[in-house]
Automatic annotation (TrEMBL):
Organism: Candidatus Sulfuritelmatomonas gaucii
Name of the molecule in the record: Carbon monoxide-induced hydrogenase, CooK subunit
GO cellular component: plasma membrane
InterPro entries hit by this protein: ComplexI_Subunit1, NADH_UbQ_OxRdtase_su1/FPO
Gene coding for it: cooK
Record flagged with keyword Transmembrane: yes
Bilayer topology: Multi-pass membrane protein
Length: 304
């Protein structure tokens, strides 16, 4: 991958020029879908963007010392990590990449969650600390499933290169891994039934309790970019491999939109689980997906 190609992917498509409007659009789709299923009107089309602009114009609380510097840094790191994850997605055919870029993608996908945990504890608010503790417990439980599913897909093809994985033919092992990823996405995106880290009825806004103004706007942007990166990962794994650039882009957008709708319907149809139920769900139920995927990968390697 050349420097120009890398910059184009990071800044244009599927980078920031595409990802920021897509983030606001996906947030609107999620809120609008939940509202319609609950027989409400829901927000207007531009509401997530207007919320972002409004927060940018508000004052932020005064912060001093190392703790204040860290609280300002966490949302910026989260936005950078989520944007970098989107830029790594092999949306276009022959988009380049490098050996091991899947490992970098997984690290970037996890960084926003780590920043949220750190931000809650940095704020020294009891509500934020409770939310961060919930986020940490939930992250440990679903990440085992998420990482094992990704690694099983990669191990079956003997590569950790994203472009090679995106060109895979549809196999039962691939679909099993994608199913495990889909089950983990609600927890990673903090939507029902796994929205307990930011449960407003219990702990205000969770780790975001002490944030306002431009800092909170950055958190909202990071959350939207996580949507784009999460559903985009699924889209790149299940999309058919085509050589036409515009067809590949349209397929990526269509599949991403379908996954957003699926997750939104799930969020509207379920209630928030308690922390022990959520952790038990991932440890006892969805771990089966990853175990089956790894077992299938090992068998395929012996048979090939």
């Amino acid at each position: 991958m050349t420097l120009i190609t890398a910059l184009a992917r990071l800044l244009i498509f599927p980078g920031l020029v595409f990802a920021m409007p897509a983030a606001w659009f996906f947030l609107w789709v999620e809120r609008k879908s939940v509202a319609l299923m609950q027989e409400r009107v829901g927000p207007p089309f531009m509401q997530p963007f207007f919320d972002f602009v409004k927060l940018l114009g508000k004052e932020t609380p005064p912060r001093t010392g190392i703790g204040g510097m860290l609280m300002r840094a966490w949302p910026l790191i989260a936005v950078s990590a989520a944007a970098g994850a989107v830029g790594l997605l092999p949306v276009l055919p022959s988009s380049g990449g490098f050996q091991g870029d899947l490992i970098l993608l997984l690290a970037l996908l996890e960084l926003p969650s780590v920043c949220i945990i750190a931000a809650g504890f940095s704020s020294r608010s009891i509500f934020a600390e409770i939310g961060s503790a919930r986020e940490a417990a939930l992250s440990v439980s679903y990440n085992i499933v998420f990482l094992l599913a990704i690694v099983s897909i990669a191990a079956s093809q003997h590569t950790f290169r994203l472009e090679a994985l995106a060109a895979l033919p549809a196999t039962p092992l691939l679909w099993l891994g994608v199913a495990a990823i889909l089950v983990c996405l609600p927890a990673k995106l903090h939507i029902n039934p796994f929205s307990l880290p930011n449960a407003e009825q219990e702990i205000y806004a969770g780790p975001m309790t002490e944030y306002a103004g431009a800092e909170l706007a950055m958190w909202e942007l990071a959350h939207g970019l996580e949507w784009v990166a999460g559903v985009g990962l699924v889209a790149t794994l299940v999309a058919p491999h085509v050589h036409a650039v515009w067809i590949a882009a349209c397929i990526f957008i269509a599949i991403s939109f379908a996954v957003v709708l699926l997750l939104s319907v799930l969020a509207a149809a379920t209630a928030r689980l308690a922390i022990d139920s959520s952790v038990r769900f991932y440890w006892q139920c969805t771990l089966i997906f990853a175990v089956l995927a790894i077992s299938s990968a090992i068998l395929m390697r012996f048979w090939s």
